[in-house]
What we know:
By secondary structure, the chain is α/β, with parallel strands linked by helices. The protein has two domains: 2-111, Chitobiase/beta-hexosaminidase domain 2-like (Chitobiase, domain 2); 119-370, Glycosidases (TIM Barrel). Helix content is 29%, strand content 21%. A seven-stranded mixed β-sheet has the order 1-7-5-6-4-2-3, covered by helices on one side. Helix 7 runs parallel beside helix 9 (312-326). The longest helix has 21 residues, at 81-101. This is beta-N-acetylhexosaminidase. InterPro entries: Beta_hexosaminidase_sua/sub (IPR025705), GH (IPR017853), Glyco_hydro_20_cat (IPR015883), Hex-like_dom2 (IPR029018). It catalyses: Hydrolysis of terminal non-reducing N-acetyl-D-hexosamine residues in N-acetyl-beta-D-hexosaminides. One of its GO terms (biological process) is glycosaminoglycan metabolic process. One of its GO terms (cellular component) is membrane.
Amino acid sequence: MRHTIRPDTAECPEQFVFNGVSWNVGWLQRLLTRLSVNPSMVVSSGDEEAWQATAELDSSLDEAFALTVDARGAHLSYRSVAGFHQGQAVLFQYLMQWICIKTLPACEVRDTPEYDYRGIHLDVARHFFSADDIMAWWDVLALFQYNVFHWHLTDDDGWRIDSQTYPELTQIGAWRGPEEVLPPQMGSGHLRYGGSYSPDQVTELVERLAGLGVMVVPEMDLPGHSRALLKSLPDLVEDDDHSLYRSVQHYHDNVINPAYGPTMDYLETLIKEWCALFPGELFHLGCDEVPAGAWSESPSARQASEQGHGTPLTQLVENVKQLLAAEGKTLAGWEEIAEGQPAPETWVYSWQGVKAGQAAAEKGHPVVMTPAQHCYLDLAVTDAIDDPGYWWAGTVDMRQVYEYQPTAGLSAE
């Protein structure tokens, strides 16, 4: 970021005007209204004396945006829609300082994000959040110029998107409780717990986030982490499969079998339903934590291997890649997707550390670095016995998160 402080100053106005602009400023309005503070904001006005903010597209900019703020107003030039949203976030940060200090130096800010992918992951399968809660959360996250929402929508403990073809997925798989098919987990207690999103709710959320320059990446976590799916659709269980395994979560029945006859037909239907809801490029398939021994006694897996089709995981990765390609989308998965021999264009998310991501990058894969040691906010902040949070990857405080450099250890190539 290039931030130039000028000698003149700007006084905080009682009201500022977005005059004659057609771009989306609803986000700024929502934030200022929620704070109930001056300056208030109106869109368009005939008052030429008002402090005014203007914006224009300038494809010749070297940076993503250029923002000038002085006593007369603010002017934002942006190279693309993404640059507009980034500049809007910086303008709001400036306004918040104004509210506190009342007088600030005039300035010019020019900036381009270092990374094209700046994501936040939310697991709503284990802990459900309403669509309204998620949108309110993103109103704040947009201030920090995040532009990808990785939405973890399925897991052992819940399936969160209503299916028109298989309504039992959320009639059964979206709920936990003593009298439900899925028992209480993750502190959900003795009451019925859960929820799901209708296609209309998903569409509305995706569109509103697009208005903030945010792409939604849905995650359908397969073939492991699939207990909610299997309990909702028992036809996906191969009767003659006597494989013995235990997942990290201590389940012995949470892995689907892509080699089993009906499995890919069901998945094709579900994936196409999701592709219709999510216009973004990426579709995340999970592929993490498949326990040893899964499929070891499966007749269909054995037959597929004898016919040269590889493991069930390689079959799943290849079949879903082809399905997504037909929908104009690209496959993504956690670092274990590498065991499924993915194509070079497959995105790899490195989560247990950095080595898997570095290895994938060296093979030419696009990589998202999300090592738990720096990025998992559900880990404890300290090692004190009364500090809430998990411990399996150590402790994570905000300094570790803020100072993390995803490309450390990689060559320029």
